């Protein structure tokens, strides 16, 4: 039983870490428009300001790719801008 609980705890922490990275990426581009898009370097710099070394994780690249595919991020001339608008505001 201890093994199952340990595995679940690790998966939960990893999932919450991915969600946190996703939120940080979206927050870094929240106030952008296609005209004021930011570079990938600026996003990585923002992530590192939140948690040291998080921008070098392979998960970060995968999360960014998924956000682009889902439309939450938009790529404009090699820069990134906010995609879908949040309707809750």
From TrEMBL:
Gene3D superfamilies: Winged helix-like DNA-binding domain superfamily/Winged helix DNA-binding domain (1.10.10.10)
Domain of life assignment: Eukaryota
Annotated protein name in UniProt: Histone H1
């Amino acid at each position: 039983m201890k093994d199952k609980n340990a595995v679940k705890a690790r998966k939960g922490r990893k999932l919450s870490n991915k969600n946190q990275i996703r939120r940080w990426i979206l927050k870094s581009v929240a106030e952008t428009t296609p005209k004021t898009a930011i570079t990938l370097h600026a996003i990585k710099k923002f992530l590192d300001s939140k948690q040291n070394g998080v921008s070098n994780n392979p998960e970060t690249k995968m999360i960014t790719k998924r956000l682009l595919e889902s439309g939450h991020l938009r790529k404009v001339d090699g820069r990134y801008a906010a995609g879908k608008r949040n309707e809750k505001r």
